Amino acid sequence: MKIIDLSNRDNMFYWQTNRLLTAEETKRIFLERYENLSEDLIEKIINYGMKSAGFRGKNTRIDKSQGIIKRGSVNSVIPIILQSEKKVVLRIHPKNVKNGYFWVEKTATDLARKFDVPTYKTIFIDDSQKVIPHDFMIMSAVKGKPMQDVDLSNKDLEKKLVTETGRYAALIHQVKPKGFGFFLNQLAKEKKGLQGQYKLFKDHIFAALYIDLRYLVDNGVLNKNQNKTIESLFNKSDDLMKCKQGSLIHNDIADWNELSDGKSVTGIMDWDECFCGDRLMEVAAYSLFYGEPRLTWFKEGYSEVNKLEKNEDKFQLFKLRYLISKMHLRKKRSTIDPSPTMKQNIVRGIQAMEEVFDYFGF
Which CATH architecture does the domain made up of 146-360 adopt? Predict the structure, then answer.
């Protein structure tokens, strides 16, 4: 079977949107990734990975697999208890698919932990597919459960967790990589550093912008006049895209990527979309999922660590860029997933775009 290589992120604002995949490949990656993950295969991966990381005996054998966490888009995530009672988490990429970002994720989390951001430690990575026909990583287990599974009917608790989230976002931003945009995975592997692929931040914003817009016009989300207006807006917004020193941006902070013990945030997870850019990008990305009062709480937590720039034009421009990318992805996914949830996501996306249009006076 043909290997699908996802390791190159050139000219991509969001790799799931901008990767040229056939309908068959998209289905294979996103909808069929749990198939053929037998208990024997998982045991083999754990045994090989833990031994390669220097562990022996009961630290290399599974006592209990807690089953696949069927969330997220690409990886299969499996919490495991070893015979030594050590808890680890196995993250497996689909068979015959090259990941190309595990080493970046390891480096990003290593750097973030230095600023007291709660997240996992990487125990072992293998993306060679020489022994196991999957790219995979083994991580330390982080206590807690996904924040989306925590009862947040108590608004005081919700406010506390969201405020902590904002604070941790600010701590993540204390990491100052070189360059802009998505990071070079091979460099992260060899030099254990983060290097963005672009010299200018605007290059990340413009990555695949015209491709995204053309797709939305071709599929009836935007008309040609809206397309021209959006292109003009970005082309005349150079001042909003100036950034001398970028920060590490997690780029996907949300309840499903955070862990909590019901009292505090215990883990910031899933760094697959991290890049280097303007700090307001993080706030714009968060705003796609949550409105008020969460956005205010997030900013209040952020301000405990660092001052956040107040520039509504920049915030709305970044939000629009995210929406353009997300709408491209949702329309593309709807061709293989015509579910009511997907249709609802498309409707919500269009409504959010219209709100940004109103702000800029389209």
Answer: Alpha-Beta Complex (3.90)
Do 177 and 194 form a contact (C-beta atoms < 8 A)?
yes
Q: What is the per-residue pLDDT across 113-145, written as a single tens digit (0 to 9) for each? A: 999 999 999 999 999 999 998 999 999 999 999
Helix or strand holding residue 107 (H, E): helix 102-113
Element (H, E) at 70: none
CATH code, residues 4-141:
3.30.200.20
Q: What is the pTM of this model?
A: 0.94
Q: What distances in angstroms separate CA 127 from CA 64, 77, 91, 95, one per listed residue?
A: 25, 16, 12, 11
Q: Rounded CA gap, 113 and 124, in Å? A: 17
Domain ranges in the chain are: 4-141, 146-360
Contacts of 293 (CB under 8 A, 6+ apart): 159
Tell me whether residue 43 is exposed, middle or buried, using C-beta atoms within 10 angstroms of its C-beta: 0 to 12, 13 to 18, 19 or more: middle
Could you tell me which residues are beta bridge partners of residue 87?
81
Tell me the pLDDT of the chain averaged across its residues.
93
What gap in Å lies between CA 347 and CA 359, rounded to an integer? 19
